[in-house]
Amino acid sequence: MPTSPVLSLRVRHTAYLPGTARAALRALLGDDFSEDDWDHALGGLHTLAWLEGQLVGHAALVQRTLLVGDTPRRVGYLEAVGGCTRRCSGAGSAGPSCGG
After folding, report:
1. What is the dihedral of CA 10, 14, 19, 24, to 10 degrees?
2. Quick check: 82 and 58 in contact, CB under 8 A?
3. Whole-number pLDDT of residue 5
4. To which CATH superfamily is domain 7-83 assigned?
């Protein structure tokens, strides 16, 4: 009986993202993802979705300061949200296809 592929989620701070994960992330997000977009995604927690050894989804939660009147509030902001469009339903619905 065939088994279903297992989706694996990993959470890492930017400082602990290995080079291979960074390269896979840049490939997943595609050419429309600018250097400014990349800079905004750094310094927070990254959730990476892996399927059969391939990165298929990502979102970064980065701390920001939001002013409410004159009062600063710390908030979490989602950056660099993306995923493949086929062969991986549930792992992301925007971005380049997974291939294969």
Report:
1. 60
2. yes
3. 86
4. Gcn5-related N-acetyltransferase (GNAT) (3.40.630.30)
- For the chain, the structural domain boundaries read 7-83
Mean pLDDT of the chain: 86
Residue 81 contacts residue 95 (beta carbons within 8 Å): no
- Give the whole-angstrom CA distance, residue 19 versus residue 11: 15
> Coil, strand or helix: which one is 54?
strand
Contact 51, 91 (CB under 8 A): yes
d(CA 88, CA 84): 7
CB 14 within 8 A of CB 44: yes
Tell me what the mean pLDDT of segment 32-61 comes to: 94
Question: CA 7 to CA 88: how far, in whole Å?
Answer: 9
